[in-house]
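Q: How would the structure tokens look for this protein?
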Amino acid sequence: MSRTIEDLLPADLTPAGLEALREGEPFRSRKNRVFRIRLEGRLAVAKIYAPERVKLAESEYHILDKCHREEGRAPRPLAVGNGTIVMEYVDGENLSEKFDRLWRDDDGSKNSLELRRLVTDGLAEWLAQFHRIFGLREARGDTILRNFIVSESQIYGLDFEEAMERDPLSDLGEACANMLSMHPMFTPGKLVLARELAERYWHHSGTDRSAELQEAIAVALEHYSSFRADGDSMRTWARKIRIDGLSK
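A: Here is the predicted structure in token form.
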């Protein structure tokens, strides 16, 4: 009888034991250490939380488990312990990097159908599904394009340690704010994509909170501006969007 990948994991999920199984360079992560591990030819991902964040491991494990059980697209969690999660490896391209690769011009007229499908309909569908799974009571948090993977034309969510009970509209606001503030910033084409993302989210979620969205985007821009050298420009745009919405 063949062993499952869970059977191959070390009994004690220590950082040193998982590091011994590491393959390749760690993934980009500001807060934790995340890397691929190989177990008898099979790949998984280890996420080792920073010491001050270890309590979030159990929470993220349960979110991943609920997503997986209810057919939300997220990596299947394999084990948790010692402030570490091991999850299945989803092979694909980071959505932020794919967005940059597919982006064509500032007014959006030459942008590919693939980009529009992924960034509007695909991401909107994923967010609406996640919010339904958690009864419209939970936001995934830190909803930036870098926290999604495109695998076989499907979007998978990653990194749920910021998930909490709060208004799910904040996720849509963060996604729009992140896309708009990627360079080149706040172009006419990106304003169009943000409007399309919102419209597709209303469609998939069966809600329409258009009147509240500009405030959610402005709040997200103000939050992310504190981490950026061009934060002044982001705060200026937050004020503009709070007044004018996503108009050009």
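The chain has a mean pLDDT of 93.

The chain has two domains: 5-88, 93-244.

Upvote if useful.
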